[in-house]
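QUALITY CONTROL LOG
STEP: pairwise intake check
CHECKER ROLE: data steward
CRITERIA: each record must contain a sequence immediately followed by its structure tokens, with no blank fields

ENTRY 1 OF 2
RESULT FIELD BELOW
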Amino acid sequence: MTDYIGAHLSSAGGFFRMGKTALGIQANTFAFFCRNPRGSKAKAVDPADLEKLRQLLEENRFGPLVAHAPYIMNACSKDEGIRNLAEEMMRGDLALMEHLPGNYYNFHPGSHVGQGVETGCRLIAEMLNRVLRPEQNTVVLLETMAGKGGEIGGRFEELRAILDQVELQEKVGVCLDTCHVSDAGYDIAGDLEGVLAEFDRVIGLERLKACHINDSLNPVGARKDRHARIGEGTLGTAAIVRCILHPKLRGLPFILETPNDTPQHGEEIAMLRREMALAQGQAE
């Protein structure tokens, strides 16, 4: 089975150029922002550029891509204007993703800012029910979060509460972030089997469509969300390799969001592939 490993890349210079960059670092998947990650300005849509990228992906047998919503999106804010902006951004991003059918669009569920988890989950699901369309070719992913402050998604039960209220069930899934789940209190480094069993019990592993692979600067349960380079945090390289090679996760796109530039991400990908080969050889 093909292992899909990539990194979060800049789309500056165009989408086709981003695909060429991915090939240059030996990635066979990648993530990108559809717009300014810390603002609301959308990238101009160039259908020809997107078509060139689509052809490159097909020719080089890339796995699914994992587009990312801007960090400022908060679908469960107290402020109706902020919620409306989140909805507008997601609609625009999903329109762009129709030029790259069959991929994923990942977003942080948001912060309930004192309204409570139940209200926050309801507001997120209501937005998804207004935005999602039966004919769309993109699956929208809720990301597991570290659970800091009023952040929703630090517990698997919170993501399940959102998913249960979504009408178009086939259009939603989950992206698991290794740093986030560890910071949220799930011991993914010390008890991967237990964490996956809990995910399966609460959400269902069939809902897991992608993974962000990051080490963490924090101990389990710190609820802080501080990413580290692979092997330079509390999770360690071996734990990340176990995730990628786990039989229940094989074939998912694994995206590096570590604090590196693109060449360093290439080095991390090469290192992970070496460690994976070694682990597989030892298993045999």
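ENTRY 2 OF 2
RESULT FIELD BELOW
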Amino acid sequence: MTYAMSDIHGCYEQYMKMLEKIRFCGDDVLYILGDVVDWGPQPVEVLRDMAKRANVIPIMGNHEYYALEMLSKLFVELRNGDFSHLPKNEAETLAWELEEWFKIGGLTTLEGFQGLTQDERVFLLEYMKGFAFYVKLAVGGQKYILTHSGVPDGAAPGTLCFFDPYDFSIASADYKKAFADDVILVTGHRSTCSIDENSRGRIFHTPGHIAIDIGIAYENAPDILGCICLETGEEFYI
């Protein structure tokens, strides 16, 4: 079976319970639509589990994109444990960037990386660099495009490769119209209760669009992880 999940945000326990609930096995494929890291308590544990599963396909979210940028900048500092080797202006800039990252939940990701060996840090950074920004697939005769937040303005199914990859992690999805007549767009990024209060705690469906970020690890959201099977449409919740 083919499954899609999004916005795990470091909630390793719920992630593992979801794999158990869907009876995920080697014959299945799971697409994770970004924002694995930040906020929740164990983002690195989620990444490590994903990385060892060849049938888990990761897609880049805005949180991975920024975490990757910050962790790459901090590579030397993580090894040395301080900023003392940096010129004052660079240290101040980096401290400001860290503060901004922490505002969007980055502290748990940084703490997780601090607990890794240098080889493990290198491995996970390279793994994250390989995340796709979108995936096209067909399941049961239905075409899907899976991406973190949506598609850039003006994009069409045949022109996606011409757009800035980062745009797929921050685009504002238009839930009021289908992206294309024969394609269903599957996204995370925005909790379903913020799209439609009637979808609080549930996956949101509209013609041509499925939104699967239920809002785990966020204030004023249901704190539920969702998953959908693309063959059957069955929905799962933890």
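INTAKE CHECK: passed for both entries
DESCRIPTIVE NOTE, ENTRY 2: The mean pLDDT is 93.
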